[in-house]
Amino acid sequence: MLYYQTANIKFMKNYFLFVLLFSTYLSYSQDIEFSNCSGNLLYINPAFTGTSRNLRIGVSGAAEYRLKKNKYFATNIYADQYLGKNNGIGISYLYEGYYKWTKETFHINYAYQVPVGKINVLSIGLKGGFVKSDYIHGSNIEADGGIGLLFYNKRIFASYGVSHLTRTIFIKEVYGTAPNHNVFFGGNLNIGNIKISPQIELNLGSWNSSGLALMKIGYKWFSLGAAFRTDESYYGMFGVKIKNVNLNYSYDFSEPKSSPYIINTHEFSVQLLLNTLKNENERAINIL
Questions:
Q1: How far apart are CA 139 and CA 59, in angstroms?
Q2: What is the pTM of this model?
Q3: Mean of the pLDDT values across residues 26-35?
Q4: What CATH number belongs to 2-283?
Q5: Cα–Cα dist 58/195, whole Å
Q6: 114, 213, 278, 281 - which has most CB atoms within 10 Å?
Q7: pLDDT band at residue 145 under the 50/70/90 scheme
């Protein structure tokens, strides 16, 4: 037992050191980012669809640009359901606004989950929908889609997703680049009632990229976390679990060089899990 715990601790130390070193060369982002990665899974990668093995409903919101008049804000609403027989479906809606410009992104997700051995799962996801943008000179609506892969078990997860595959001129103007590649991975280390979860999210574009290193520690019904993003943002996080409801709050302590307005950022997320298939939970993914 002692050897098992020692090996686990050594592995997690080496893993998190690698995460921090790998993320330091990245800078700036072209796509909306939420500091609390796990509150926005369906948006970053459709392969996460249905992986909670519950009916999952969530809302995430962030106000990033603290100008007196022209404030930037974003709200993400999502829901997914595991259907049984390795199938999951979901929807995701993202609304962003700044001054007289708004953007709406809507996707329908599907994922097929392939059991690998007794404890592992390989999930393959697809998403399709549209991006609608309204601004002073008019409006545009374009088709949008993406694909993703996810490998996970109770201790580790690793995912790769590609968004904005349409690569039209409009999508490039809205997001800065297309397509956008997302890599998200992490692990869980349980020591008694304490759960330690290092995570990393990388957004890789054709001309600019960003990275987010995150460490969370959970104990029974609450969790604490700290994160560093490569635009020199630092976050503090606090989460509470009340039965089947997860509440999370994060605060940005710094002013990144990419914009003088991204300061004092408040972000909230709420997630509801309803256990509809109790006998399926042995293959559920639980990201702290």
A1: 26
A2: 0.79
A3: 41
A4: 2.40.160.40
A5: 22
A6: 213
A7: very high
